[in-house]
Design brief:
32% of the residues lie in helices and 13% in strands. It has 571 residues and is an alpha/beta fold. It folds into three domains: 272 residues, 3-Layer(aba) Sandwich (Rossmann fold); 38 residues, no CATH class; 161 residues, IlvD/EDD C-terminal domain-like (Glucose Oxidase, domain 1, 3-Layer(bba) Sandwich). The longest helix is centred in the middle third of the chain and has 20 residues. 56% of the residues are buried. The protein binds FE2/S2 (inorganic) cluster (FES). The site of FE2/S2 (inorganic) cluster has 10 residues, from loops.
Length: 571
C-alpha cells in the first residue's frame, strides 16, 4: 500500500510518532499504522439538530465499509446546525462550521473523509470545508423524512407550516387544528421532505458528483440508505488510493450540472448562495448570471412542494434524481465525473420514470423555463433573484407603491396594523436583513401578508428583501438584493409610496424615482433595532468580513483553497 498522509504522523520510531500512535492504540491495533488509509467520518449527528439525529447509525455502516476495504474509520464530530432551532439564524454560522471542518481535517492525521450532512447548512458547510482542504471526500445525504399526514391531509414540513399559519391569520383554519397538527408534521428521522433547501442541496450535491450516484433522496429510514452508506465507506478508501480529490470532481462542468438540476427539480433559492460559496473555495468562476444563463431554459420536471404537490418520498418512489436527470441529459456536461471516477451521465442510462404525476417527461414539463431568474436594476445593482416557479404568474410583471420596513422587528410590529397604508398592489420592502445588516441573512424575505389583506382573500404580493427565503416557502419574493441596505445598497433609499417596478421577463427590479431625488436622500441602514448586544466574537468577525449575496456570503479570507499540508509538529 502506498504511503499515506496519515503516515506523516504515524510512520517512524521517534518520540513524536510514538506519541501519535500510543494515544490512538486506545482502540486501534498495531497494524492500523502500517500506511493504510485513515478515513474521517465528519459527523453532524446532534440531538439539537433533529434532521441529523440519525447519523450515528449511518456512521456505523460507513465504518463497516471502510474496514471491509482495508481502511481505518474515525468518527469526527463537527459543528451541526439545526435550521429550526438556532438563533438568530443558522446562516450566521454556516461559514464558522465550514471553517471548523476545514481546520479539523487539516489538523488531524486523516487521508480522506466521508461527509454526513442533512439539515440545510450542514450540507454546504461540509462541502466548503472539504473543498478548501482538498482531501479525497465523499458526501452521504441523511435523506428526507417520511410524508406526514394529519386528519386525512398530507403535511409537507416547512411549506405547510407557512400555509397553515397564514390560514389561521385569515381565520380559515382554527388555532386548535394548527397546534394539533404539529405532532404529525415530523413523521420520522430525516430532513424536510419538501423541495426545500436540504432536499435541493442533496440533489445538487449528487449532480456535482460528490455522492455515489443514486443516493440522493433515499428516505432517511429506508434500509437502502444504510446499504449505500456501507458502499460509500468502501468507496472512500478507493478514493484515497486513487487520489480522487474534490478539485478533480468539482469543475465548471459539474457546477453546470448542479444548476441544471436545481432548475429541473424546482429547487431552493438558497442553493444559489451555497453553490457560489463552494465554487469560490476552489477558484471556479461562477457568477450569479450563470444561474440565469444555464438554468433559465430548463423545464421543471418535478412536482414537489413548495412549487407543486408531492414530497420527497414520492420523488424517490417515482424514480429519483437519476430519472429526472435522464430527461435533461443533453443539457449536462458529459465529462463531469463523480466520486466513482466515472461521469455522472453514465449513470443515467435506462433510468425510468415510474410515476409521471411526480416526475414529468421532458416533453410534458410541469413548467417551462423553471430556473432562478437574476434581476438587476437601480434597486439591485449587483443583482437579486426570484424563483418564478414559486411566484404568482400575474405578479411577474408588476408596478406598485412601496411599504417599507426597516427591520424584521419593525415589520412584525406594523404588518397587521389596521391603519397600515397597504393594498393588494403594494410592494412590501424589508431591509436590514442582509449578511451584515441582520447579521446573518435570515430566511425572512417571504414576510407574512397584512392580516386585513388576507381577510380580503389576497394570498400573494410582491415582496423585496435583502435577506433570504426558506426553500420551503413560496410567493412572489425578490430576495438576496445586493448590495444590502446595511452595505450602502439603494434598498436603503426606498421610502413609503415610492413606485417599484418588477419585470421578471425583462429581468428588472427598479425604483421609479428620479436620480436627482435619490441623490438627495440619506440611506436608512438601521440594522439592529431590538438587538441590543454589542457585536463580539464570531458575529464581530462575520460582520467585518462577510461578502454580499451575489458572491456567496462567504468570509473574504475563506475564499480559495489552502490544501491539506501542515508543516509543523505539535511537540
Ligand atoms: Fe432541517 Fe428543514 S429544518 S432540513
Amino acid at each position: 500500500m502506498s504511503k499515506s498522509r496519515s503516515s506523516e504522523w504515524y510512520g517512524g520510531t521517534d518520540r513524536n510518532t510514538y506519541l501519535h500512535r500510543a494515544w490512538m492504540r486506545r482502540g486501534l491495533p498495531a497494524h492500523a499504522f502500517d500506511g493504510r488509509p485513515h478515513i474521517a467520518i465528519a459527523n453532524t449527528a446532534s440531538d439539537l439538530n433533529p434532521c441529523n439525529s440519525h447519523f450515528d447509525e449511518i456512521a456505523a455502516s460507513v465504518k463497516e465499509g471502510v474496514y471491509e476495504a482495508g481502511g481505518i474509520p474515525l468518527n469526527l464530530p463537527v459543528v451541526s446546525l439545526g435550521e429550526t432551532q438556532v438563533r438568530p439564524t443558522a446562516m450566521l454560522w454556516r461559514n464558522m462550521a465550514a471553517m471548523a471542518v476545514e481546520e479539523l481535517l487539516r489538523a488531524n492525521p486523516v487521508d480522506g473523509v466521508v461527509l454526513l450532512g442533512a439539515c440545510d447548512k450542514t450540507i454546504p458547510s461540509l462541502l466548503m470545508g472539504a473543498a478548501s482542504v482538498d482531501l479525497p471526500a465523499v458526501f452521504i445525504p441523511g435523506g428526507p423524512m417520511l410524508t406526514g399526514t394529519f386528519r386525512g391531509q398530507v403535511l409537507g414540513c416547512g411549506t405547510d407550516v407557512w400555509r397553515l399559519s397564514e390560514e389561521v391569520r385569515a381565520d380559515a383554519v382554527s388555532q386548535e387544528f394548527f397546534v394539533e397538527s404539529e405532532s404529525s408534521m415530523i413523521r420520522s428521522r430525516g430532513h424536510c421532505n419538501t423541495m426545500g433547501t436540504a432536499s435541493s442541496m442533496t440533489m445538487v450535491t449528487e449532480a456535482l458528483g460528490m455522492t455515489r450516484p443514486g443516493i440522493a433522496g433515499i428516505p432517511a429510514p429506508d434500509s437502502r440508505l444504510l446499504e449505500a452508506s456501507h458502499a460509500t465507506g468502501r468507496l472512500a478508501v478507493e478514493m484515497v488510493e486513487k487520489d480522487r480529490r474534490p478539485s478533480t470532481i468539482l469543475t465548471a462542468g459539474s457546477f453546470r450540472n448542479a444548476i441544471v438540476t436545481l432548475a429541473a427539480v424546482g429547487g431552493s433559492t438558497n442553493a444559489v448562495v451555497h453553490l457560489l460559496a463552494i465554487a469560490g473555495r476552489l477558484g471556479i468562476t461562477l457568477s450569479l448570471d450563470d444561474f440565469d444563463r444555464i438554468g433559465a431554459g430548463v423545464p421543471r420536471l418535478v412536482d414537489l412542494q413548495p412549487a407543486g404537490r408531492y414530497l420527497m418520498e414520492d420523488l424517490y418512489r417515482a424514480g429519483g434524481l437519476l430519472a429526472v436527470l435522464n430527461q435533461v441529459k443533453d443539457l449536462l456536461d458529459p465529462d463531469a465525473i463523480t466520486v466513482t471516477g466515472r461521469p455522472l451521465v453514465e449513470y443515467l442510462n435506462g433510468q425510468q420514470i415510474w410515476d409521471e404525476a411526480v416526475i414529468a417527461p421532458r416533453d410534458r414539463p410541469f413548467q417551462e423555463d423553471a430556473g432562478i431568474a437574476v434581476l438587476r436594476g437601480n434597486l439591485a445593482p449587483s443583482g437579486a433573484i426570484i424563483k418564478p416557479a414559486a411566484a404568482s404568474p400575474h405578479l411577474l410583471r408588476h408596478t406598485g407603491r412601496a411599504v417599507v420596513f426597516d427591520t424584521i422587528e419593525d415589520m412584525h410590529a406594523r404588518i397587521d396594523d389596521p391603519d397600515l397604508e397597504v393594498d393588494a398592489d403594494s410592494v412590501l420592502v424589508l431591509r436590514g436583513c442582509g449578511p451584515k445588516g441582520y447579521p446573518g441573512m435570515p430566511e425572512v424575505a417571504n414576510m407574512p401578508l397584512p392580516k386585513k389583506l388576507l381577510e380580503q382573500g389576497v394570498r400573494d404580493m410582491v415582496r423585496v428583501c435583502d435577506g433570504r427565503m426558506s426553500g420551503t416557502a413560496y410567493g412572489t419574493v425578490v430576495l438576496h438584493v445586493a448590495p444590502e441596505a446595511a452595505a450602502g445598497g439603494p434598498l436603503g433609499l426606498v421610502r413609503d409610496g415610492d413606485e417599484i417596478l418588477l419585470d421578471v421577463p425583462a429581468r428588472r427590479i427598479d425604483l421609479l424615482v428620479a436620480p436627482e431625488e435619490l441623490a438627495g436622500r440619506h440611506p436608512n441602514a438601521r440594522t439592529t433595532e431590538g438587538y441590543a448586544a454589542p457585536l463580539r466574537g464570531w458575529e464581530r468577525l462575520y460582520v467585518d468580513h462577510v461578502l454580499q449575496a451575489d458572491t456567496g456570503v462567504d468570509l473574504d479570507f475563506l475564499v480559495g483553497s489552502s490544501g491539506s499540508k501542515v508543516s509543523r509538529e505539535s511537540h
